[in-house]
Design brief:
This protein is α/β, with parallel strands linked by helices and about 350 residues long. It has 17 helices and nine strands. Strands 5-4-3-6-7-9-8 form a seven-stranded mixed β-sheet, sandwiched between helices. A two-stranded antiparallel sheet has the order 1-2. A hairpin with a 4-residue loop joins strand 1 and strand 2. The longest helix has 27 residues. The relative contact order is 0.10.
């Protein structure tokens, strides 16, 4: 029996279905409130307060009381904030704050909530693509990459050096003694700078097509006083480096490439003999039926439709989509030349698989 068989709703009544959709609309509304709570600092503020009135919470956060009070109404009916009508006070229980505040690090789900209002900004243009085909370029998403940097940065800070890199046998020792490392599709370059600071004997290069991202990585490296981190602007599909690196990392950058197969081939060619690719990409199955009923699967397909697939199609690309899946990823790595591929997971990053591919 497939996952799809197990999640059929043949006996569902119209009333039951309507109930599910009403719950979904409420949940979507709550995600907007969570996004606002994260960006305004309200969630972090409430986590440090005893039960407080809306005026006290607004004062502590430095915000307008009337807006704070209406937000609290939604958060109370959404069962995130507790309300005591006798004292007109609101509180954020510790167990909820533990997954909704910056103190949660990579476990902060309020960070993810920011993507929904962001993607909604391009809804009308995506609807146009349904009729006209094509896609929306990266330039339509000026804040998307800042949010990705915030989300991935929490994972890098918490787990990159101590958890992710040790997934590759012998890699930490190799980095301590000195190796040439590149991060393809490095974005703002935070992963490169985290690794460069941890392993001063190795040399790290961040590569991305975005000059803005390269500038951000360069600024951070300079601020940290790093002399072993550099950044280069390249189109990964056209990169022609041969035997340049001992290690290449790619974090959530392959599935939205216009030419992912060519990028993987370029990675293989850029590695030296005995080199290793450490690739993080979305944890999903390539078979739709396996993803039915899996938490966050609706989110993955929505994000794909509204960003990852469409930015690839905007360049006449493959349009793999966010949920391209483990089976296809492994197959494409094999086609690129990697005949030794292992897939691993880490607890602090439930949304990604980690592929270790050796040359």
């Amino acid at each position: 029996m497939t996952a799809l068989d197990k999640n059929t709703t043949a006996g569902e009544t119209a009333e039951e279905f309507a109930g599910r959709i009403v719950a979904a609309l409420d949940a979507a509304s709550l995600s907007i409130l969570l996004s606002i709570g994260h960006q305004t600092g309200l969630l972090d503020t409430m986590a440090g307060l005893p039960p407080s009135t809306s005026a006290q919470i607004a004062e502590a956060a430095g915000l307008n009381e009337r807006y704070v009070r209406e937000w609290l109404g939604g958060m109370t009916t959404g069962r995130v904030v507790d309300y005591d009508p006798q004292t007109a006070t609101y509180s954020l229980p510790a167990h909820r704050a533990g997954v909704l505040t910056r103190a949660a690090g990579p476990g902060n789900l309020a960070v993810v909530a920011q993507f929904f209002p962001l993607l909604a900004q391009v809804e009308q243009k995506i609807i146009g693509c349904f009729s006209e085909g094509g896609g929306l370029p990266y330039s339509e998403y000026p804040r998307f990459h800042a949010l990705m940097a915030e989300q991935s940065g929490a994972v890098f800070d918490a787990a990159l050096v101590d958890v992710v890199l040790p997934l590759v046998d012998g890699l930490v020792v190799r980095l301590r003694s000195g190796a040439d490392v590149a991060d393809f599709g490095c974005g703002s370059g935070h992963a490169i700078n985290v690794m460069a600071r941890a392993f001063p004997a190795s040399r790290f290069t961040g590569i991305d097509f975005s000059d803005e991202a390269i500038a951000a990585g360069t600024r951070e490296a300079a601020g940290l006083g790093l002399t072993n981190a550099t950044f280069e602007s390249h189109n990964l599909a056209e990169l022609d480096k041969v035997g340049a690196y001992d290690v290449i990392t790619v974090f959530d950058a392959i599935h939205d490439q216009a030419q992912p197969a060519r990028v993987l081939e370029n990675i293989y060619r850029a590695l030296r003999a005995g080199g290793v690719l450490l690739m993080a990409d979305i944890k999903a199955s390539s078979r739709l039926e396996d993803n039915v009923g899996i938490p966050m699967s609706i989110y993955l397909y929505t994000t794909s439709l509204m960003h990852c697939m469409t930015v690839s199609l905007a360049l006449d690309g493959a349009g793999l989509g966010t949920a391209w899946g483990t089976q296809l990823a492994t197959s494409m790595l094999g086609d690129a030349g990697f005949d030794d591929v292992r897939v691993a997971e880490i607890e602090s990053d439930p949304i990604n698989n980690y592929y270790i591919a050796r040359k």
